[in-house]
Design a protein that fits this description.
Length: 82
């Protein structure tokens, strides 16, 4: 499955189970696709749900040719940040 397919299939579960902590967002800053405007646009969101929604929507925009790399980095960041 591609990152886009996995994200769509698990969107609601990810939305309520991710903790968009400063640690996670900091780790995601090392993921090339997410560093530009995507992670910085998550930070000003008011609630964790809004932060997660913004972050998950960014994952849906990842180009097909780098989805595997972004998925691996995203999973690594999730694991490292608890």
């Amino acid at each position: 499955m591609t990152l886009k397919e996995i994200t769509k299939a698990n969107f609601s579960r990810l939305l309520r189970s991710m903790d968009p902590s400063i640690d996670l967002l900091g780790r995601l800053m090392s993921v090339p696709f997410l560093t530009t405007d995507r992670v910085p646009s998550v930070t000003p969101q008011v609630t964790d749900d809004h932060k997660n929604f913004t972050l998950l929507n960014a994952l849906l925009e990842v180009p097909a040719d780098i989805q595997q790399s972004v998925m691996n980095d995203f999973i690594s960041a999730l694991r490292s940040s608890g």
